Amino acid sequence: MNAFNPFFKVTAFAPVNIAWIKYMGKVEGKPANSSLSMTLNALGTTTTMSVLEDGSHLKFVWNEKGYVPPQTGILKTEFFLRNESHWKQLLEKFGFEIHLPTTNVMIHTLNNVPAATGIATSASAFAALTLAWSSVLTGPRSKEWMDRFNAHDSELRKAIAEVAAKGSGSACRSIEGPWVEWSPKDGIRCIEGGEIQWIDFILLIENEPKAISSSEAHQRVKTSPLFEGRVRRVEDRMQELKQLLTAKQQSVNQIRQLVLDEALDMHELFHTSIPSFRYMNSTSQEVVHTFQKHSAEFDLGLPSLNAVITLDAGANVHLFVPASEQDEWTFWLRQEFPKIPFLMDEAYLSKGARYESLSD
Fold first, then answer.
1. Residues linked to residue 187 through DSSP beta bridges, in sequence order
2. Which of 212, 255, 276, 337 has the most Cβ atoms closer than 10 angstroms to its Cβ?
3. Does the pLDDT at position 211 exceed 60?
């Protein structure tokens, strides 16, 4: 049997998650602060792992028809996959033995959003990888493992999220959905997000991979004079946002201001680090300024004031609006920013990551 005819193949999907309260900066391997994100539904990463007959030892082969990370990304990924201790601990916790392949394993990864552009594909990628590889390692009991995960065994999903975070911190938030809180002290948990059914318009301002990776940004921000006090500011916003989201009558105006303040606070860390760097470009700033202006003046040119905008570590802008207003906002975006393509996802439908298929 040749390398293109696998005898074991598993496919997993994990959506990207968009933080409304950002995680930025690590302290002793843990996030410096709590974060709160909304996991999307259909936009993310699909990863297939195929165990092949050829090869005399475990070797990862990247399928060039999919997304292949840069060399630093490959090294980081393979180090994560080869760290037998956390995989063994994960499987044994739920009564499974570990079965390490002794041949080639092909990785085929597809993103349906541009990778490395600030749309959290590192999170979805490591979440999907964690699902796929843990299934491979369960060997003959892989279907049992997958069925248990897809049945939303909360204990198993939380444990997998904790392992995913060892690859990319925010990957832990892509396992569940739609609203996920990640605390350095208490770990991962789903929270209530209120009654509004949010959809996310992603304004694709840049499609090319960013020059400064998120991993490097986590290190550089600690050199900013604004980093001191960041944890306190974030934790205050976290508590306020959770209260606003679950209030009987949600104040989208207050939510919008808080979420935008948080995003701009994070970007100021980038601008004031040593050396400084930027993700936002002139178009990003134009979009942000448009919403600041409209919000301040209650401009009737907007479809409504029920919009929340944020940016992750990139130039692209996320516009969250109620699903009931999707058509109005679609029309407005095409009129206001005709040169900016966008994607849309029904975030409120998200149930997190899932296994899609298994063949052996």
1. 183
2. 255
3. yes
